[in-house]
Structures are given as structure tokens and as C-alpha cells.
Amino acid sequence: MSFLRSVATVGGYTLASRILGFVRDLLIAASLGAGPVADAFFVALQAPNLFRRLFAEGAFSAAFVPLFSAELARTGRNPAILFAEQALSVLLASLFILVCLVEIAMPLAMLIFAPGFRDEPQTFHLAVLFTRLTFPYLLFVSLVSLMGGVLNSFGRFAAAAATPILFNLVLIAALVVVAPYTPNPGYALAGGVTIAGLAQFLWLLASCRRTGVSFRLRRPKLTPAVGKLLRLMLPAAIGAGAAQVNQVISTAMASLLVPGSISYLFYADRITQLPLGVIGVALGTALLPLLSRQIAAGEGEAAADSQNRSLELGMLLILPAAAALLAVPDSLVAVLFQRGAFGAFQTVATAHALMAYAVGLPAFVLIKVLVPGFYARHDTATPVRIALISIAANIGLNIALMRPLGHTGLALAVSLAAWLQTGLLGFVLLRRGHWRPDRPLVRRLVRTLGCALAMVAVLLGLAHLLQGDLTAHGPWRYGAMGLMIAVGGGVFMGLAQWSGAARLQEITTQLRRRPAG
User: Fold this and answer.
1) How far apart are CA 164 and CA 149, in angstroms?
2) DSSP output for 413-451
3) Which of 416, 437, 458 is the last residue of a domain?
4) Are 452 and 355 found together in one domain?
């Protein structure tokens, strides 16, 4: 499977997942709004979501895929699967102990996740209860990430990329079917998180068996290969997951602000996760195995070219998305969430956070593309040092910005810290000679930015003309938003083709291409 086809596969399934995620979030916003119950559930959801992003989209893949790919190439299929089974047994035993300890100490853990809840006993109690229901998801996501890494190493990206769809389907069912019989919808949603993890595990287990890979649960044993995996995982978690760690820190800070602040950040983050998941995660997932193979084969020039083309594609897709979120955030939030318990005040507060996150959206994608350049060379220490600098900067920015800007300052701090991390990653790769921007990359980045700015002008004009339709109730506002997206996207794509920022023929050629051998 060609690299671009792999990106399209992962991105397509991620897009479907994000669309279902929006349906889920629409239902949550209408049921919970932005009050104490919503704040408690979003804190409970963030704990497993943090580990999902670190494991499924970060640390485990970053450490496991290069090792598994190298073992597969060096010793063959059976020894590689044996290594995966050994890693599975050690990881499962370790995480089982961790989950049990956190479940027992959840009230203390909540003082870290949301220290501001101490002064609100009811919210604190709900957050502890909900997080106890969601936290076992960590066990399942560890199994899912391992099996997904095995499938990705075999060039099979579809099954793992589809697992988030199951997550959203289960939570939608929990909200629609189970929630009416619970004291509040938070109970049904929290329980649904762990059930969704079980569904994802069963799905990938069946997918592995169809690929001819059957896992046996072995007695945990710390072999040299597993020891190396664990040594790579911890720094990889920090290196690839700095944005998620910064998000957790911002949520903890938001618990010290007025009620609803956590919810505003959550809803804004959900919107930014659509382009970030479709583009950034897809690129990072497909790029890591490709770079690992090229570097292992001594193809340094090819690896640098793969990274440049990935950056080119990522910016082509993410810059117009970020520009649109900056241009019309109020309209977008109103159309998506303003109904039921989610009113006009919540729309404005969420739109402010959305603009702040949109500032960092290109940086989040750049991190996903640059970090594999280190992991493919088995260097997890450098991204860790850079990530720690980013986290420290985020804490400082949170303290400086939360008082004058409230929850918007917390979102802006995450974005600024991401840009700092991006700059440092790129600088180190440049200094070591592992990556250098070529002329096509620079030329197309400038043209893509120009096309995105032109699209912004069109969107602002349309938003002014359609203001009444965008704020109206009923199906009209969906049609108006759909028209804005279609026209804005059409303008950008037309300008990109005309200016040379992107060539449709090149993209289709890459989609059809299969690597030699």
C-alpha cells in the first residue's frame, strides 16, 4: 500500500469516527450543557482519553512499531509475534495493577485531575464516581494499541483506524438507550466508555485473526526485547504526548475557574480534534513504519523526502481548517452545539476557546510529522527533553494568562506551547542533518497560506450574508453552514490547483502507486 493511500485509509476512517463523535457531542451538549455534571463527566473522560492518545496514537506505537518492524524484517513473522505476545503479557499485568491502585485512590487522584472540585462536594463526588467507571478503559486501550501496531506493521491500517467508530457508537447508544434510566446521563456515558473499550478489543482481536495473527496470553516475563520496549515507551509517552499532558494541565487549571470552564474547553477541543485526527494522526500513523523501513535500509534521502512530502500534505490540509476556525468560530459552535441546555452564552465562551486552539492547530500536526523522525531512529530521549520544555512553558503560560483571559487563556497556552515544541523539534532535526526543507515544500507552503487567507475573506463575507440563517433554529442553519463549508472548500481547492499549492494529478498518482517490492 502506498504512503498516501495509507494516509487516506487512516484519515477516512478517522473522519467517519470524528463525524460520529460530533453526533455524540451534540447529544451530550443538549443533555448536559456546560454545568457541574458535564464538567465532572469531561474530567472522567479525559483520564482514559489521555491514555488512549498516549498509547494508541503515541507512546506504544512510537516504541513498538519500529521494534516489531525490525524484528519482522530480521527474524521473520513467528519471532516477531512472539515478541508481541511477551510485550502484551507484561503490559497487561502492569496496567492491571495500575488500574486497581488508581481505582482505590481515586479521590486523591481527583485532586490532581481537578483540584478546583474540592470546594464543590457534589461535583467532586460525581467526578470520582464517573472516573472510576471510565478508568478500566485503559486496560482495553493497551491491548487495542498493541494489536493495532501489529496490523499497521503488516501494512493493514483500516481495522485499527476504525476502532474509534465503535467507541462513538457505544457512547451514542448509552446516551440514547441507557441514560433515561439513570440519575443523570453522566452515569450512562461513563459506563459506556469501558464497554466501548471492550468492543474495540474484540473487533481488533477478530481482525488480527483474519490476518493470520493469533495472540496467546503468556506468563509475564521481562525479556531483553520487552525491557527495551518499556525503556522506549516512557520517554515516547512524554515526547509524543506533550499536547495531551498540556491539555490535562489546562483542565486542572480550569477547575479553579468558574463552573463550565472545563466544558467550554472540551467542546472547543472536540471541534479541533476533527481536522487534527483526520490529518495529524493519519500522517503520523502512516509515516512511522515508512520512515522506520527507509532508515533501516540506509535510505536517508528517501526518509527526508518522505518527511517533506508529509509536511507538505499536512499543511495543505490543516492550514485552511485552522483559518476557517479562526474566521467563523461563533457560527460553527452555534450550529453544532447551541440547543437544549447549551445556550448563547455557552456558544460565545466555547468560540473564544476554539479560536485559541485554532492558533496551535498547524503546530499539533507538525509535531505528529516531526516526532517520527526521531522515533524511527530509536531516539526517544530528544523528544522527551523538548516535550518537558513545552510542558514547563505551558504551565507558566497558564498561570500568566488564566487570570486576564480565563479559560481562553488556558487554551491559548496549549497552542503557544505546541508552537514552541514544533520549533525545537524542527531545529534539532535540521542541526543533525536528518531533515531539511526542500524548495517544493517551501514554495507550496507559501502558496497554501495565500490560498487559506483568500478563503478566509470569502468565509467572512458569507457569514455576514447568512448571519440570520446561521442563528436560526431548525434545518436552515445546517444548510447555511453546509453552504459555507462547500463554497470555502471549493474556493481553497480551486486556488490551490491554480497556484500550484497542490496538483490533483500528483495526488491521484500517489494514491495509485505501490512501493517497489
Assistant:
1) 15
2) HHHHHHHHHHHHHHHHHHHHTS----HHHHHHHHHHHHH
3) 437
4) no
Q: What's the rounded mean pLDDT across residues 286-307? A: 72
Same domain, 100 and 175: yes
CA distances from 255 to 40, 309, 343, 393, 444 (A): 10, 41, 21, 20, 42
Q: Do residues 2 and 514 touch, judged by C-beta distance below 8 A?
A: yes
- Using CA atoms of 3, 158, 72, 67 in order, give the dihedral in degrees to the nearest 10: 80
pLDDT (0 to 100) of residue 369: 82
Mean of pLDDT over the chain:
81
Confidence of residue 511 (pLDDT cuts 50, 70, 90): very low
Q: Tell me the residue type at 498.
A: W
Report the alpha-carbon distance of residue 98 to residue 106 in Å, rounded.
12
Three-class secondary structure of residue 338 per DSSP: coil
Mean pLDDT of 141-165: 77
Sort 182 into a burial class: Cβ within 10 Å, 0-12 / 13-18 / 19+: middle
pLDDT score of 512? 47
Q: What is the distance, to the nearest Å, from the Cα of residue 74 to the centroid of all Cα atoms in its chain?
A: 32
- For the stretch 310-341, pLDDT in tens is 888 888 888 898 998 998 888 888 888 877 77
User: Mean per-residue pLDDT for 452-459?
Assistant: 90
230 and 205, same structural domain? yes
Amino acid letter, 304: A
Taking residues 370-375, report their average pLDDT: 81
Same domain flag for 431 and 451: no
Residues in the chain: 517
pLDDT recorded at residue 514: 45
Q: How far is residue 124's CA from residue 254's CA, in Å, rounded to a whole number? A: 14
On whether both 410 and 452 belong to a single domain, the answer is no
Cα four-point dihedral sign 105, 108, 114, 120: positive
Number of compact structural domains in the chain: 2
Residue after which a domain boundary falls, among 420, 437, 454: 437
Residue in 3, 309, 374 with CA at minimum distance from that of residue 152: 3
DSSP run (H or E) holding 291: helix 282-296
- Give the pLDDT confidence of 57-112 residue by residue, as tens digits: 556 666 777 777 777 777 777 888 888 888 888 888 888 898 899 899 999 988 88
pLDDT-based confidence at 353, cuts 50/70/90?
very high
CB atoms within 10 A of CB 405: 16
Give alpha helix (H) positions in 76-176.
Answer: 77-104, 106-113, 121-134, 137-153, 158-173
67: Cα separation from own chain's centroid: 23
Looking at the predicted structure, is the pLDDT value of residue 52 above 70? Answer: no
**What is the Cα–Cα distance from 16 to 166, expressed in whole angstroms?**
11
Cα–Cα distance between 288 and 379 in angstroms, integer?
13
Q: Which residues pair with 339 in a beta bridge?
A: 342
Q: Are 52 and 95 in contact (CB under 8 A)?
A: no
Query: Which single residue is written with the C-alpha cell 434545518?
Result: 475
* Domain extent at residue 237: 3-437
Would you state the cell numbers that stand for residue 376, as one nine-digit string? 524511527
